[in-house]
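Structure tokens please, single chain.
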Amino acid sequence: MKQDLSMYGRLVKHASNMMSRHIDSFAAGYGLTGVQLSIIDFLDKYPEQICLQRDIENEFAIRRSSATTLLQRMEKKGLVVRSIAKSDARQKQIQLTFKAQPFVKLNQRYMEVRRASLEASFTAAELQNFTEILKFLTIDEAGKNYGKDHEKK
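Here you go.
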């Protein structure tokens, strides 16, 4: 039986939306957004290294203007410090503040619960297959050749 391939895209989009809503709801209880909590988690991986704004842009696949606005809001809340990078004056260096540290542990616990839920519901092999599919979709292997075969006539 042939399946409707558009179903996969809708399911991935729906799952992404639900995950975003869930983390936004969780983070809102602490006066944050889900994206801010995710950025705090990302920056925690750079305790001794320099993290540039472009690293955040690349990690979260967001535009420079979106990253700037997001980081400015985090700076106003005292969660990050933005400074001119020593290596390139055109770049902003981003560091977590002491005020952000409690949110690092909070996010780690949140992610542990989410991971445990998946691991309790699926086998290791199923999770491995799921991971491979997500990687495939992330690099857009499924759609990168669309224009070649479906040129406008």
